[in-house]
Design goal:
The protein folds into two domains: about 1-30; about 35-265, Muramoyl-pentapeptide Carboxypeptidase, domain 2. A hairpin with a 6-residue loop joins strand 1 and strand 2. It is built from ten helices and six strands; from the N terminus they run H-H-H-E-E-H-E-H-H-E-H-H-E-E-H-H. The N and C termini lie far apart (about 55 Å). It has a four-stranded antiparallel β-sheet. Strands 1-2 form a two-stranded antiparallel ribbon. The protein is α+β, with helices and mostly antiparallel strands. It binds zinc ion. Zinc ion (ZN) binds near residues 152 and 159.
């Protein structure tokens, strides 16, 4: 009897060990927790904006403008709180309220922007005529992401108010707003990924004072995007005009962001 008990206990402990190993393998293959990502949605599709927005994101309505945008629920909640705090602080000082001008953009939304600029239908700093594909790409990449590489795919990032740096500079209408954001946005989890160009080793997109990111989630998504790219799982060749000339620019543009974002957990 004693021998039998010993052996069944022994077998039990082996099974327990096997179960533990299996669970360890299962969880280690998902470095981002399910609630940070989407649970059932494929990671590659999510990170490259190739999904139905209502599957992952919630509606965000500008209170005065009444137009609707899509964001992750965690980002939208944090933004609501930040707007409330800003409205209290700006009273009798600034007439400029916060509103969203752009939030989620899908792969195909970004493709329309990209190809519009590539073909010269959308205005840029210089005309595309007479330029090589490489020159056109670097011109577009001053302000616009290649499809599949945009932080706007993630539902964590949005553009505020006016898409011009001057609006936020000294004597601009959004001067108080911008100074307030610089001081307070991190308390709500937000950072400005495209800060002064020379603060990022003159790499990536030029400065965008209007673009803000919900860092606690976007930081993880950025790490995951770069990991998948390195593994060859994010491939844009043949997917849009000029995609064959991107070479290794995508990870440079995805990783060249404000150091302050990484400090927000
Ligand atoms: Zn933006």
């Amino acid at each position: 009897m004693r021998g039998l008990l010993f052996s069944s206990g022994f077998i039990f402990s082996i099974l327990q060990g096997l179960l533990f190993q299996t669970l360890l393998f299962f969880f280690s293959s998902f470095p981002i927790s399910a609630d940070t990502l989407s649970g059932s949605l494929d990671t590659v599709k999510y990170l490259t904006g190739d999904y139905n927005k209502s599957e992952m994101l919630v509606k965000f309505e500008n209170k005065i403008e009444k137009n609707i945008f899509f964001l992750r629920k965690d980002a939208a909640n944090a933004l609501e709180k930040m707007m409330e705090a800003y409205d209290i602080d700006r009273e009798n000082i600034s007439k400029q309220h916060i509103f969203i001008s752009s939030a989620f953009r899908s792969f195909s939304d970004q493709k329309a922007i990209w190809e519009g600029k590539y073909k010269g239908d959308r205005k840029m700093r210089e005309s595309v005529s007479g330029k090589t594909p490489e020159q056109i790409i670097s011109l577009i990449l001053e302000y616009s992401s290649a499809p599949g590489t945009s932080r706007h795919h993630w539902g964590t990032d949005f553009d505020l108010n006016v898409l011009k740096n001057d609006y936020y500079k000294k004597n601009g209408k959004g001067e108080f707003l911008y100074e307030w954001l610089r001081k307070n946005a991190s308390r709500f989890g937000f950072c400005q990924p495209y800060n002064e160009y020379d603060q990022r080793g003159n790499k990536g997109y030029v400065e965008e004072r209007w673009h803000w990111s919900y860092a606690p989630v976007a930081n993880k998504l950025q790490t995951e995007w770069l990991r998948l790219y390195k593994e060859g799982k994010l491939n844009f060749k043949g997917k849009y005009t000029g995609s064959d000339y991107l070479k290794d620019l995508p990870p440079v543009y995805v990783s060249s962001i404000n150091n302050a974002c990484a400090k927000i957990k």
